[in-house]
Amino acid sequence: MTIVLDARDLSKSFGDVTAVDTVTLSVKKGALFGLLGPNGSGKTTMIKMLTGQIRPSRGSATVLGFDVTQDPVGVRTRVGIIPEQETPPSFLTAMEYLHFVAAVRKIQDIESKADWWFDFLDFADKKNVLCKDLSRGTRQKLMFTQAFIHEPALALIDEPLINFDPIMQDLVKEYLVGYVKKDRTIFISTHILEVAEEICSDFAILHKGRVLHNGPVADLTGRNEHLTSFFLSLVRKDRDA
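Given the sequence above, the corresponding structure tokens read:
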């Protein structure tokens, strides 16, 4: 079993507030891993640390063998990232932004690759529109494209279906499930439990910055337990402790 993401006692504090508290978890190659938690549980902070966007206060993590503290650029150049808030540069068109991504990631034949994504996510009519003039859903399509256009071994996605309508949500879920079947790995953070139960192979529950549970989804289905009820029970118990 190959581990592509490994966090050990990872913590992040902002002043007196501890957003992530000694989190230890690992993700194996080929998993569709879901980091689940209510709003404010530390999911976005975890994604930012694992992608080298912010430094941990304590602990360590490696992503695809690269230390997130010692080589954050090495991490970001090899993974796909979709932040919680879609932020393509407002002064570029959608196509210009993908050319920029191609230059940074040294992607060849960007025109044909981009055209495939424009068609697949049904926004070819927006390719020459400035990002500032795109709808939130279309900006999300563009951010999804930039994360996967170089076919990364690992993609980290904060709320993957945010701003997508039901038809696009179904298409994207199908794509994510198919992507890990190619021996690639996806790490998502979400508070939408139904989506996690439908597509994830493994999951961890984060509450108040701490991991309450970590394991395969199959462990729940094997005992006829739904992820939603399991999640709510753990979080309520921890909240009331």
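Residues 82 and 143 are 6 Å apart (CA to CA). Try to locate this feature in the token string yourself.
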